[in-house]
Amino acid sequence: MSTITSPGVKAGPSLTARLLASQRFSNLTIFGLLVAIIVFFTVVTPSGTFFSNYNLTSIALAGSQLLILSAGVTFLLIAAGLDLSVGAVVVFSSVLAAKLMLGLTSGLAGTAQGGAELWLPILAGVGAGVVTGAAWGLVNGMLVVKSKIPSFIVTLATSTIILGLAQVWTGGMNVSGVPQALTDAFGMGTLLGVPWPVVTAAAVTGLLWVVLARTRFGLRTYAIGANPEAARRAGINVDRHLLAIYCMVGLLAGLVGMIDISRFSTASVSGYANIALQSITAVIIGGTSLWGGRGKMSGTVVGAFIPATLTSGFVIMNLQPFWQNVAVGCVLIFAVFVDQYRRRAMNVT
Fold first, then answer.
1. What are phi and psi of 191, to 5 degrees?
2. Structural Rg of the chain based on CA atoms
3. Which residues form the signal peptide (predicted)?
4. How far is the first Cα of the chain from the last one, in angstroms, to the nearest whole number?
5. Is residue 286 a contact partner of residue 295, using CB atoms and an 8 Å limit?
6. What was the pLDDT predicted at 240?
7. Which runs of consecutive H residues, i.e. helices, occur in the chain?
8. Angle between helices 53-78 and 196-214 (to 10 degrees)
9. Which of 112, 196, 231, 246 is the most interior residue, by most CB within 10 Å?
10. Tens digits of residue pLDDT in 204-243
């Protein structure tokens, strides 16, 4: 028996549209994709190579820094913002921290690695690096909020400026000689067998997950991304909130820079050219809308580990790891297509 629709009554969204609009369905889809990738490489690679404790730990370690940045970028995209300068902030913060450590420890060559005389300069360098990252984030936020210039343009410009300053400062050369004690204790250290960078990434992401899902700060982030003018009328200080998010993203970039120098004992000037786009890609693949107002941290966690998983699998299969870029690009196009279809189907636009 056919269904009769009364004239003038608009039909509701189809089952497909409602399914695509479901955040839970989006999260399950991206999680299923990661599981499928893991199963595929487990089957096609020699037994005990891909799905092993060593390789899974390596994947977690490789994805930890991207995960920290992506967790911050999740807030920014939900609030309808963008930051293309995080890679440059990582470089500048790591350079500053490395140079400060080298300067303060230059006269401590004979100091024992565990001595307080050595660790005070190390902690000073780490603190300065993180604070510097937060300061650059604040600069980005001030420029976006006060100038009303699109965040894409502002952060593209500041990315060039920040990276250029780092290159001028170092002469385009990496800064090596970071105290080995930092690498031994943190970069290569473990907690119950889990590398400290992975523990740090899990702690930071877990904290931001709770903030986004369970606090007023998270609720206001969604409100600003969905409709900033309505958020202002509801009493939310939109400008101050955006400043806080940009500052947080900068702080996380500074933290990633500290993790990097602890792992490799070197501040790389050219190692993070693409991490801004990689973090945005991970967040979008995880189901966060590029147009704001929608997203969850659970999807970001999965999206951040897909590139590292693909790279590991391709290396074990003796394929060029650059195929990871091709695969991630295809997934990104599909994710944006689904998001656009969802917006049209649910009459969000």
1. -125, 110
2. 22
3. none
4. 34
5. yes
6. 95
7. 15-21, 23-44, 53-78, 86-105, 116-147, 151-170, 180-182, 196-214, 216-226, 228-233, 238-264, 275-285, 297-316, 323-345
8. 30
9. 246
10. 999 999 999 999 999 999 999 999 999 999 999 999 999 9
Strand partners, 191: 194
Largest CA distance in the chain: 89
Which residue has tokens 């189901």?
287
For residue 194, list its beta bridge partners. Answer: 191
- What are φ and ψ of residue 318, in 5° steps? 65, 30
Enclosing H/E stretch for 194: strand 194-195
**Which residues, including other chains, have CB under 8 Å from residue 285's CB and lie 6 or more apart?**
30, 299, 302, 303, 306, 328, 331, 332, 335
Q: Map tokens 């210039």 to a residue.
A: 149
Determine the 3-state secondary structure of 237 from DSSP. coil
Identify the burial level of 58 via C-beta atoms within 10 angstroms of its C-beta, where 0-12 means exposed, 13-18 middle and 19 or more buried: middle
